[in-house]
Amino acid sequence: MPEGDTIWQAARRLHDALAGKVLTRSDLRVPAYATADLTGRTVLDVTARGKHLLTRVEGGLTLHSHLRMDGAWKIYANDQRWTGGPAHQIRAILGAHDRTAVGYRLPVLELLRTADEQQAVGHLGPDLLGPDWDAERAVANLAAVPDCPLGEALLDQRNLAGIGNVYKSELCFLLGVTPWLPVGALPADRTAKLPELAKKLLEANRDRPVRNTTGRRGPGLFVYGRTPRPCLRCGTRIRVADQGDGSRERPTYWCPTCQTGPAPAPGSPPTQRWRSRSRILP
Ligand SMILES: [Zn+2]
User: Fold this and answer.
1) Is 149 helix (H, G, I), strand (E, B) or coil?
2) Torsion angle of alpha carbons 146, 278, 106, 101, nearest 10°?
3) Beta-carbon contacts of residue 202 (< 8 Å; ≥ 6 apart)
4) Which listed residue (56, 250, 264, 282) is catalytic?
5) Smallest Cα–Cα separation from 249: which of 240, 257, 259?
């Protein structure tokens, strides 16, 4: 699952390839927009909003895309072969004179009026990598869901936007609590520092090809993907269990010694599920 830093990198690559250029090729391969033609329009900018990508073009139009699990935008020079997957997985092609951006497996692709972008991203909380970042609002949003397990509250993009499953596990480790701890039980000092810590992690990684939360060479992550290896801090075996609301169970990693709070017993099925307020695409 791409996280905010990955989307930010994708937006920058698209922006560098297309912004300021006139589209000479446009092909949106979803039924609703099969006849839409953006050729002749200049690309104004490409920006990330949480995990959403907004490609704005002249004439007040925005192409909104979301990569969800395995979508990708690839950029090719004219003489390069396209290697992002089989042709039938291509959902969008945007070409300028020297570069072509090809969107593969995009589960969300829609053409909006730029004035209506809020319909696509208006539900998002403050964006950790965005110009509208507002730590106080993020803290207030989290405080409004005291019964929600912290791990799920961090993934809910309405609270704050940009955290995916990797940073969820890493942040809970850095805060010293399990992802199953209800938000309301998090000590106040840690609730207060959580948003800035999350922002620091994403900012530190937005220019890196490989994620690093430990600040060390070698293992770049404290817990994510590390089971059954020992915790870098205490040597206890890292554990993994699913966490989710039933529709989306995510593998969740933690150190049972460094992190306090509820957690599934070894070998038990996933713990009780938090019902989110509604189903909105992260
Ligand atoms: Zn540990």
Assistant:
1) strand
2) -60
3) 3, 4, 5, 8, 128, 129, 162, 163, 167
4) 250
5) 240
Indicate if 51 belongs to the active site. yes
pTM exceeds 0.90: no
Closest CA to 219 of 209, 230, 234: 230
Average pLDDT per 10 consecutive residues for the chain, totaling 282 residues = 85 97 97 94 95 96 92 94 96 97 96 96 93 93 96 95 94 97 95 93 88 86 95 96 80 97 78 43 48
Residues 6+ apart with CB under 8 A from 62: 54, 55, 56, 111, 112, 113, 114, 116, 117
- Classify the phi-psi angles of 75: left when phi > 0, otherwise alpha if psi is within -120 to 50, otherwise beta: beta
Which is the catalytic residue, given 3, 49, 158, 226?
3
- Which pLDDT score, from 0 to 100, does residue 223 have? 97
